[in-house]
Structures are given as structure tokens and as C-alpha cells.
DNA sequence: AACATATCGAACCGATAGGTACAGTTCGAT
DNA sequence: ATCGAACTGTACCTATCGGTTCGATATGTT
């Protein structure tokens, strides 16, 4: 089964348990006992793998950031027309941002940002910034193809606006209403609205 | 000085101290000792006025919500032209949202939303929703005056889009970078960008 | 068989948390 | 002069926190 195995298996188990507990309670309110119990592991084992609660928290968040980043880069858009591209972007982004895990992580990281500034920055880069980087590239391709006209704004500014327009309203709502669950219909309707507005502002006149 | 006075003075002192401590450390990490010390008051006095730490936290947040609401309603816009109106709206909103106090409160409330759902909802209504309500009214007046054309969207949807476009990018950045401070120039530039985009989408063609 | 490693379980440590108890003090009102 | 409410200071209670220690046990390797 397991004991004397050179187990980094246990390390992963602990990390998963810690993730659940931290995302559920935040850093301060989470206790190492809860994590140990959730992992089904003895307390000594936890501290054999991670020296302190803080380091364990950092390990959890960094792992989550990496998975975010690799998940974003795997997304590929084959644009047949700008409108379809924008729809796909908006829906994909909202699916990620409004997932229970992402909302929980956002809550915790924002709440603990004063205590873990570097960590908050890493999340900022791995999450929102990565999205904007990708959107910038796709939108500037569409502009090169003559389908969009930013009217003097940079592609990055337009992409920033679009990403924030898509994200912020629903994200804020569900950040502050943790027991409510977003519906697919609501997501799609808001995505539609965002695409409509963006195209009204930036669709090239032909 | 004070003692046997029927003092709600002390209650206010304690509330102020609690506000500072809670906004600085969040709920879980804040201690009643810190609050007592900050207020320059004995521990017994704190518990004479507020039965538990939780109730004290709730009192702090509700007071802050009320002050938000009354502060919002006091704002008056005398628009001479839509563009000026949008500029004023954007700058005013950003000034509020990016103030250190508002950022700290947002961090705490988002972080503790799972533990205090009703409180988070009250904040949602007193903050973001109040802003959107006001923006909706002003924008629909501008639409009635023939200066805006929402192209089938409701005034509330347009106002929601504008408010979120204005707020989200910078707010997210400073939520996750607590030690950085927004500059007036940055605020005004982003406000300008938002007005530009909004007008490109919704300015009535004459 | 023997050893190293990983784990367990539970006791244990010092610190600190939220909250209470209580004896004494200061004031305003009667 | 007295009374009672508000307040202070401090000691105290109990629970729990993060973290350590240690003996027992079970395994894989040699």
C-alpha cells in the first residue's frame, strides 16, 4: 500500500486537503488540524512535508496559479468572424472566473493580499493578466484582418476593456453572494451583451 | 472628562477603533485586544457595548454601509453634455472605489463573505448597486435628451456596463497590490478611455 | 535478517484567543 | 452625602492555535 514508499503521494494528498480547507475558510480561520483531518493524515506527516502553515498556503496558491496558466494556454481559438471569437472568449472567461474554485480562490487572495503581497501578484499575473495577454493577441489579429477598428486605442487597451467588461459584473455579484450559483443562461446573456457593446464600439465600418 | 456619562461616546470610539483594526487585519486575524488597545479603553468596556466580536464587526460594516449610501446620495451632477457627465461619473466613482478605506473594506468583505453572507449583501446594495442605480437614472435622462442611443439595451444594462468598465480594471489591480497607490493621472486616463469607448458604442448619431 | 524511511497517534508545549469576574474609581443626578 | 451607572485594570478561565517530540509500526531495499 504505502508506508515506506518515497511518497510524494502524501504530499499531494496534503496539498489537496489544504487547498480545500484554505479555499473554504481563508488563511487565518483555517487550522492545521482541519487540514490534517481532511487529508486523513497525521499531524506529524503534514509538518514532515511542509514546514509551516504559511508555506503550505503558498504552495497551494502557487500550484493553483500554475494550473490556471497551463489551462489558459491550452485554449485555442479558430476565429471565423470576430463575433464568434468574442463570444467564445467571453464564455470561456466567464466559465473560469465564475467556477466555485476560482471564486473561492479570488476571495481568499484578495482578503489576504496585505499579508501575502507577492502571492497576490503572482495570482494577478497568472489569472487576469494572462487572460488579457491572450485577448490582446487575438483581438489584434482581428484588427489586422480589418474586422475591428480600435479608433486610436491600443489593442491591449481594447482587450483590457473587453476582459473587464465581461468579468466584473457577474464576478462581483458572486463574490459577494457565495451561496448563489450562476446559471448558464445568465452567463450567456451577459456575454451576449458584452459582445454587442464591444462590436458597437469597435466593429470596423466597411 | 467622561466616565459616568450615559456615553454612547465610548461606543463610537470603540466602533472607530474596531473599524481601523478590522479593515487592517480582516475579521479572523483581528483580535479584541487590538481593538481595545486601539480604542484606549478597557476590555470590559468593549464587551459592555458589544456582546461579541462578530456583532462588533457587523456594527462596523453596517455603519460603513450607511455612510456610503448617504455619501452617494449627496453627489449631484449638473451635466452640460453627456461627455462631461460621463467624465464626472467615472472620476467620482473611481475616487471612491480606489480610496484606501474602500479597498480595505472590499477586501475584508469579499474575504469574509462566506461567513457573513447577509452583510456582504448589504454592502453590495449600499455600494456597487447604489452606484448603478444612480448611473442608470442619469444615463436614461441623457438618452431621453437624444444624446445617447442604447440600441435596444436597457438604460440599466448600459449603466451597469459603464460602471463595471470604469471600476473593475483599476480596482482589481489595487485589490491585489495593496502597497501600491493609484495616481490621479492613471485614474483620469482610464476614465478617459472608458468614456471614449462608451461614447463610441452609445453616442446618438445626429 | 537488518536497516532506513515514512508514517501514525497521541501527548505535549508555549502562546494567545474570546470572553468573564471582580474590586475599585469616577462622575452626574438626586 | 449618597446612589448608581459607566468605566478601569487586571487577573482569570477555557479552548484552541501552530508546532514539536517520541515511541510504535509497517514497509521496501539490501
TrEMBL record, chains A, B:
Residues 8-68 form the HTH tetR-type domain. It comes from the Bacteria. Keywords: DNA-binding. It holds the Pfam family TetR_C_7. InterPro entries: Homeodomain-like_sf (IPR009057), HTH-type_TetR-like_transc_reg (IPR050109), HTH_TetR (IPR001647), Tet_transcr_reg_TetR-rel_C_sf (IPR036271), TetR_C_Proteobacteria (IPR039536). Residues 31-50 bind DNA. This is TetR family transcriptional regulator. It comes from Alloalcanivorax venustensis ISO4.
Amino acid at each position: 500500500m504505502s508506508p515506506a514508499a518515497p511518497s510524494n503521494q502524501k504530499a499531494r494528498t496534503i496539498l489537496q486537503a489544504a487547498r480545500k480547507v484554505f479555499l473554504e475558510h481563508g488563511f487565518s480561520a483555517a487550522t492545521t488540524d482541519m487540514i490534517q483531518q481532511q487529508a486523513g493524515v497525521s499531524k506529524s506527516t503534514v509538518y514532515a512535508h511542509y514546514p509551516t502553515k504559511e508555506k503550505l498556503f503558498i504552495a497551494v496558491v502557487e500550484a493553483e496559479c500554475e494550473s490556471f496558466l497551463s489551462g489558459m494556454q491550452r485554449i485555442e481559438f479558430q476565429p471565423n468572424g470576430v463575433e464568434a471569437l468574442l463570444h467564445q472568449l467571453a464564455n470561456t472567461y466567464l466559465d473560469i472566473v465564475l467556477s466555485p474554485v476560482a471564486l473561492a480562490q479570488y476571495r481568499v487572495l484578495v482578503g489576504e493580499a496585505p499579508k501575502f503581497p507577492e502571492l497576490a501578484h503572482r495570482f494577478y499575473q497568472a489569472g487576469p493578466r494572462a487572460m488579457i495577454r491572450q485577448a490582446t493577441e487575438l483581438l489584434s489579429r482581428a484588427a489586422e484582418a480589418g474586422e475591428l477598428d480600435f479608433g486610436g486605442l491600443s489593442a491591449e487597451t481594447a482587450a483590457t476593456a473587453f476582459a473587464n467588461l465581461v468579468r466584473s459584473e457577474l464576478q462581483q455579484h458572486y463574490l459577494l453572494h457565495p451561496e448563489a450559483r450562476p446559471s448558464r443562461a445568465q452567463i450567456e446573456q451577459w456575454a451576449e451583451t458584452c459582445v454587442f457593446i464591444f462590436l458597437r464600439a469597435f466593429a470596423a465600418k466597411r
